[in-house]
Amino acid sequence: MASPEVKTSIEKALKELESSLEDYIQRTPSKAELKIWEASSEVEYALFLLEIDGEPIYLKPENLNCEDEKQNPAECVVRAQTLLQEALELCDASEGRGQVSEKLWAAKRYLLASQEQVKREEGRSPPV
């Protein structure tokens, strides 16, 4: 079972992603990018909390690569939301802690891909 702080962080990330989709639809990509960044920081914090709780983090190669990097930012955000929702549900399972970190790492990759796509759409080059 994950700590309440991990669940809170995931819930905050989901809320930020919902706002980012609204901003993206309203054609305010800079606001959407900021919300995606804030969600990414919450995901990073949740991963940190799992690590200091002694949760071993095993990364599968498929979680390191986002096969949908060519999708638009909204599609990547929706995929990240799905993974975060799955992680949130696993937080209550006694045997789901390892899966929580896997879902968070995969969601983080989608969030990074969506940030890069937003920057490309704005005509800015993503950071190297």
Report on this model:
- The protein is elongated.
- The chain has a single domain (4-121), classed as Four Helix Bundle (Hemerythrin (Met), subunit A), CATH 1.20.120.
- It is mainly α and 128 residues long.
- The protein has helices at residues 4-25, 29-52, 61-64, 73-90, 97-122.
- Helix 1 (4-25) runs antiparallel to helix 4, helix 2 packs antiparallel against helix 5 and helix 4 runs antiparallel to helix 5.
- The protein is built from 5 helices and no strands.
Outline the fold blueprint.
Elements: H1 4-25, H2 29-52, H3 61-64, H4 73-90, H5 97-122
Please mark out the parts with pLDDT under 50 across 5 or more consecutive residues, or reply none. Answer: none
- What oligomeric state do the depicted chains represent? single chain
General form: elongated
> Care to count the β-strands?
0
CATH topology: Four Helix Bundle (Hemerythrin (Met), subunit A)
Give the amount of beta strand, in percent.
under 5%
For the report, how would you describe the main beta sheet? none
Query: What's the overall average pLDDT, rounded?
Result: 83
User: What is the CATH C level class, in words?
Assistant: Mainly Alpha
Quickly give the structural class. mainly alpha
Q: What's the architecture in CATH terms?
A: Up-down Bundle
Order of SSEs, N→C?
Answer: HHHHH
Number of structural domains: 1
Helix fraction by DSSP (H/I, runs of at least 4)? over 70%
Number of helices: 5
The separation of the N and C termini measures: 37 Å
Radius of gyration: 14 Å
